[in-house]
Write a structure and sequence with these properties.
mainly beta, disordered N terminus, 45 strands, elongated
Length: 590
């Protein structure tokens, strides 16, 4: 059995040399010639090989275990006169393998061609006498092993390994002649003799002679905490014991800084199983009865029932830790909105959830938000930190939640595990989306007029005026002369349009005529503002079509309630207004 002791880099290089062309990538020097001649085994632990090459040096390896192909490396050897005889020590190699020889441009530059041949290294069987002791207890002296190896070489060692964990490898050097006192590790061990090369990098096992021994000097262990600053809450404790096979009991006791026992914390834990391969036993210690911050000490004892040794007792090394029993203070959750529309159309696609924490507790604090249905079912959760976080009405897998009302439950943990839970908040998820609609309505000047204001030299005539019906006559400067302001005449108009989230486009067309000189002429005022919405007080500039006379600026806007208001101002001349056509493009939730 091959027992390599090499670094991971050697393993990688060995595998690359065994499989592939056995030359490093990028090698360009393949002009050297190399051949293997006679290979002989002149004696145990020796191997000779004739190599013919025009390279300045060669490098040799023996791969003696095809399952775990780690090489026995003999290093570069200079070549003189085109040939070299390799005389290799094979102590530690198994009885079969491959000899690999590579041409080298220099002793530190080997990337030439390779030759391989099967070899059969030989060894001699040492004589070993194991101690009659099969159980090593506390207080017993070292374990003795006697070896006689007259024809061997390299170095000898005893491997103490656990049969249930073959990967365990504990080589302990022993003398090649005479008795050796060795200290064995704890556990139920199988001992066997190894022969290794001089540097103890490569070993082979003599499996013909084995010896089983139980070593149990102590079951003292330790208590491990993942951190030494905790909160007053249950904590996970690891109990680290020697590699036992079976179950054990433990009793943990918690004391304060004065040495007084804290009642209700710790306790007896039975039937614990420590698995040496998978790690120590873990238990949960309840610290909820701790009401004051401070320093505490956790200690304990263990009991183990061994089939061969009977009842064994041990102590656990105490561990000291600090408890912070005060949860985060001044915790408040603020929502930017109580509703969210998770369809990414620009309208409340997400809400901002801001968690405020006292500055003294903010460092190291974590936040967990839970969305709970009205039936009390947790539908999604996500971690965060103090400050703002965005939530888009979806689960962690991006699936939108069903429409309805939910509760937001927030928990804020400090770095000691203490938690504060502010009051839940109600939130609403809607599946409505933004839809753009259009609205058009034609109203008479008389039917839409809400107020008339005429100067002292002007007049407003309501009713049938000239050729219009349901119109309004505007007659500035019709009775006297004077300054410009007193000749102005104004009418204000309004109607109610549909409510909307956003008003995207507004156009108002005026249908009327200049009474004097062109009774049937028309003047059209177009008001327009595209995309971006309208709010109270936003004024639109009019664009006036061809008509006799002149006009003043007219203010037009849409209020948030959908009220469309506009004003018509005229001066110098007489106008008749018959009707207005209002066209509105708006966006609403549906």
């Amino acid at each position: 059995m091959q027992m390599p002791l090499v670094r991971p880099l050697a393993l990688l290089l060995g595998c690359l040399l065994l499989v592939g062309p056995l030359a490093p990538p990028g090698s360009a020097d393949t002009s050297y010639r190399i051949s293997l001649g006679e290979i002989a085994v002149p004696g145990p632990g020796r191997l000779t090989a004739q190599v013919t090459t025009d390279a300045p040096a060669v490098h040799a390896w023996i791969y003696s275990d095809p399952v775990n192909p780690l090489p026995l490396d003999f290093g570069p050897v200079p070549v003189s006169g085109g040939a070299v005889t390799l005389d290799l020590e094979t102590w530690g190699a198994s009885s079969y393998g491959d000899l690999v020889v590579q041409a080298c441009a220099a002793v530190d530059d080997c990337d030439g061609p390779i030759r391989r041949a099967a070899v059969s290294p030989s060894d001699v069987q040492p004589t070993i006498r194991w101690s009659d002791v099969s159980i090593v207890r506390d207080g017993d002296g070292p374990y003795e092993v006697s070896v006689d190896d007259p024809g061997g070489g390299g170095t000898l060692a005893v491997d103490a390994w656990l049969p249930k964990d073959p990967a365990t490898f504990h080589p302990i050097p022993v003398a090649r002649h005479g008795a050796s006192a060795i200290v064995l590790p704890e556990g139920r061990l199988t001992l066997r003799l190894l022969r290794c090369d001089a540097e103890r990098r490569f070993c082979r096992a003599f499996d013909d002679d084995r010896h089983d021994v139980l070593v149990r000097r102590t079951i003292d262990g330790s208590i491990d905490l993942p951190r030494r600053d905790v909160g007053a809450l249950p904590i996970d404790v690891a109990l680290q014991l020697p590699p036992l096979e079976g179950t054990f009991d433990a009793e943990l006791v918690l004391r304060d800084a004065e040495g007084s026992v804290v009642p209700g914390a710790g306790g007896v834990f039975t039937g614990l199983r420590q698995r040496p391969i998978r790690g120590p036993a873990r238990v949960r210690v309840d610290l909820s009865r701790i009401s004051e911050s401070g320093t505490y000490v956790l200690s304990g004892r263990t009991t183990f029932e061994d089939a061969d040794l009977g009842t064994l007792h041990g102590s656990l090394t105490p561990v000291t830790f600090h408890v912070d029993a005060v949860p985060p203070q001044d915790v408040e959750v603020v929502l930017s909105s109580t509703s969210v529309f998770p369809y990414q159309d620009g309208y409340r696609d997400s809400m901002t959830i801001t968690t405020h924490v006292d500055p003294a507790d903010r460092a190291g604090a974590t936040v967990v938000h839970q969305i709970v249905s009205r039936g009390g079912v947790l539908v999604t959760l996500y971690p965060g930190a103090p400050g703002p976080t965005e939530w888009n009405g979806r689960r962690l897998n991006f699936e939108a939640l069903p429409a309805g009302r939910y509760s937001l439950h927030t928990a804020v943990y400090d770095d000691h595990g203490n938690v504060t839970r502010p009051r839940p908040r109600s939130i609403f998820v809607s599946h409505q989306r933004l839809r753009q609609r259009s609205y058009a309505r034609t109203v008479s000047a008389l039917g839409s007029m809400t107020r008339a204001r005429a100067g002292s030299c002007s007049s407003v005539v309501v009713g049938a005026v000239r050729v219009w019906r349901n119109g309004v006559g505007l007659r500035p400067a019709s009775r006297c002369t004077g300054n410009r302001k007193r000749r102005l005449v104004t009418t204000e108009h309004a109607l109610t349009a549909p409510r909307a989230v956003r008003y995207d486009l507004l156009m108002i067309s005026l249908d009327g005529g200049a009474g004097r000189g062109a009774l049937n002429s028309s003047a059209v005022l177009n008001y327009g503002r595209r995309y971006g919405g309208f709010g109270p007080g936003i004024v639109l500039e009019p664009a006036l079509g061809p008509h006799p006379g002149s006009t003043e600026r007219a203010a037009t806007y849409v209020t948030r309630t959908g009220r469309v208001r506009w004003r018509v101002v005229a001066e110098t001349g007489s106008y008749d207004l018959k009707r207005f056509t209002v066209r509105l493009v708006y966006t609403r939730l549906e």
